[in-house]
Amino acid sequence: MSKLPTEQAKRDYWSQSIKWVLILLSIWFLASFGCGILFRTWLDENFPKIGNAPFGFWMAQQGSIIIFVLILIAYANVMARLDKNLER
Amino acid sequence: MSQNAWNFLFIGLSFAAYIFIAIRSRAGSTKEYYTAGGGVSPLTNGMATAADWMSAATFISMAGSLSISGYDGSRFLMGWTGGFVLLTVLMVPFLRKFGKATVPDFVGDRYYSQTARLVAVICAIFICLTYIMGQMRGVGIVFAQLFGIEIWLGVIIGGSIVFFYAGLGGMKGITYTQVAQYTVMAFAYTLPAVFIAMTLTGNVIPQLGFIGDYQGADGSVPFLEKLNNINTELGFAQYTDGSLSTIDMFCITAALMCGTAGLPHVIVRFFTVKDVKAVRKSAYWTLSFIAVIYLTAPTVGSFARVNLIEKLHDTSYADAPQWMKDFETTGQLAWVDKNNDGKIQYFGKGKSESKKDNAVFAGKTPSFNGSGDEAERGDHGQRLVKNEIATNNPNELWFGADMMVMASPHMGNTPKWVIALLMAGCIAAALSTAAGLLLVLSTAISHDLMKKIIKPDLTDKEEMRWARIASFGALVVGSFFAINPPSEFVAKTVAFAFGLAASSFFPTLLMGIFFKRINKYGGISGMVCGISFTLLYIIYFQFGLPGLGKGTPADYLFGISPEGIGTIGMLLNFAVAFIVSHFTPATPKHIKELVENIRFPRAAPGEAESAPVNH
User: Based on the domain organization, do B320 and B250 belong to the same domain?
Assistant: First the structure.
């Protein structure tokens, strides 16, 4: 049976998890609300097109969804690593 | 083989499969009824959640909304997928560690109060009922299409089938049925898109065709440019431009995302897997499966728009394709020959006198004189509408957003079996979500209300009976509203459910996990203020309030439509909870320990590993 994690280890685990959640949520916000809504018009005009689609429009209809999937894969892996550290 | 024969074959086969699975894996105990026993693999659960998640609204109406509103439709795409990021990183791993069967269970324990539990039960019932209306209507539309009957009859037939297998199977039956349903849905949605992409753009992959070139009679042009040109020529806004204000777009998307993370029927799906690690894995599987359909939807919508306009605009009714007449029969499409030239004209707002309105007639949907063989016909054989004709604009064609997905394979001349598969997919989508919702509704009543609040000595068997009675009641109410829908599109009715979830469960659960300081007074008052504000706002603008009358868009708060108001309701919930908690006694020590405990995925040695669901 693994050792009981110390209080310090638990605090570290929690602050690390919060840190990662905040990082991933900022990417989430930028990809969707940022590229897809707030800065869309500017991105449409100034960013290279994806195929024939304006950048902001493409992010809103396709890109953001792909990024969401990647975020969740990253989350599962990062948290699995943190869990392992806590048990050691 | 005729189209009908193919339809019956595919739908019959899929039904046989669902019922076989439901009977094989029907629930024997409440534990199996509520959470399938708790040992479902992440991949299986991912598929089942995707099916549960993708409702009739997604499947039938979303591409249609996209095709009508272009960029504006992105709110559904981002909202309904982005919510899963919130759900996964902020909610489900912790709720799973907590290890209870339902969402009101968590709220009741975390806010150490029966009142909190009761408020949560009421919120859950409200949200699920709003949501299930959209599903039942979806079922109705498919059956209407299939048998050429009116939508109300379709709703009743569909409702009976859902009750039969969801009430019987419980979560265990539903989970394995949903895996089969997802498979049907994924093929049904992507295959027609592939066929249409090939004819329109010469590209096998719809997503590449979408950003590729349109292969028309007069050479190839970028597809989106072609679509923008068609739109502007007919007086619509450019497809890639939106018409919603940025703040409205922002608020609606936020409400959909936070609502997703607060929907009880999605949250409980994650209670069926083994442990926290499996929850995280299951979450990315779920979103990957969902992405398959969500990445295809914008392509289906845009292809359908080009096809629809090319095939119908400026075509005489006599030469119009058969599918148009079929949709006219079911009342999903109507043509009014305003200029008496026998040709169909389709124009946007830009062509009307006021530049604001392209309504074909007064009212939201057409009502026809007579149906079937008795239908009254005009000079060209079209069905006549009773509505008063709007004469301030030249637009002659009305169609519901609901018909786009159904019509697209007809427009693209795809093989008959593909159309039949699509029908089976639509039914799978509506059935799977309706089943998931019914389950939450019935557990909210049997477990949270009867067992935990009214009659704690309820036996397992009685609890199951209550669950089944409750699911029947919920279906009756849901079907009634599906027949008399309070809102235009399936997708819109559903959008309100998200507003309600965003303003009640999302903030309450989030604060329950991340802020120990929020006590029962804060939690309850936040939830009550959030959901009542949102509900009143929606009712005020959709139906009108006694004494106040009905609001017009000019009265919108900060220009936010009822669809997006959940975001403001959510902020209100947070604000009220923090302020009230600040002035009331601190959270008791054992609750703080409980919160501490759910933050760590593994149980401490000596403590029982979080067994799924004890009652």
Answer: no
